[in-house]
Specification:
Elements (H helix, E strand, L loop, with lengths): L1 H16 L11 E2 L4 E4 L4 E3 L7 E7 L4 H17 L4 E7 L5 H10 L5 E4 L4 H5 L8 E5 L4 E7 L4 H13 L2
Parallel strand pairs: 4-5, 5-6
Antiparallel strand pairs: 1-8, 2-3, 2-6, 4-7, 7-8
Length: about 170
């Protein structure tokens, strides 16, 4: 039985590290109602996402793939931010807040970073356990795509452009 768990873990880790993605369904689902506590002490809610296309990224400073994909997330944010696009990076509950603050400051993250100290946000968004997990939310506040592992950024940019073009 232990071997099955080890094999499953290795397969899952390999899947996540090669940029696998999961498309939840053909229909959109409303993003869960959540409150996000940002590093500056302010807060946002799911309602604040409406009106923009938003990339919501669950990550951790201890996650090698998360750290590796961050320059691409920054570049994506900078490319589309003036067209109605936003990014929200949510640090997992096990990530020490001081590490998150240091990472955000040292990398000069140009988007909002939230701390999920209790794990309630990750739980609300589908009980996120694997990082990185990225959701693309349309202007109506609906999740249209979910990526587990690093996204294919070329494909992601095409999706963002399509969603930005929609009313």
């Amino acid at each position: 039985m232990a071997i099955k768990h080890i094999v499953a873990g290795v397969v899952l880790a390999a899947f996540a590290s090669v940029g696998g993605y999961v498309f939840l369904s053909d229909s959109s689902q409303t993003a869960p109602q959540s409150n996000f506590v940002l590093l500056d002490g302010s807060s946002k809610s799911t309602n604040d996402l409406k009106g923009k296309v938003t990339l919501v990224n669950f990550w951790a400073t201890s996650c090698v793939t998360c750290v590796a994909e961050m320059p691409e997330i920054i570049a994506t944010h900078n490319k589309y931010k003036d067209q109605g696009f936003d990014t929200l990076a949510i640090a997992m509950s096990y990530d020490p807040p001081s590490y998150v603050v240091n990472f955000a400051q040292s990398r000069q993250l140009p988007f909002n970073v939230a701390l999920d100290n209790t794990g309630a946000v990750a739980k609300a968004w589908g009980d996120v356990k694997l990082t990185p997990t990225t959701y693309i939310v349309n202007k109506q506040g609906e999740i249209v795509k979910t990526y587990i592992g690093q996204p294919n950024f070329e494909e992601l940019h095409k999706l963002i452009e399509k969603l930005l073009a929609q009313a």
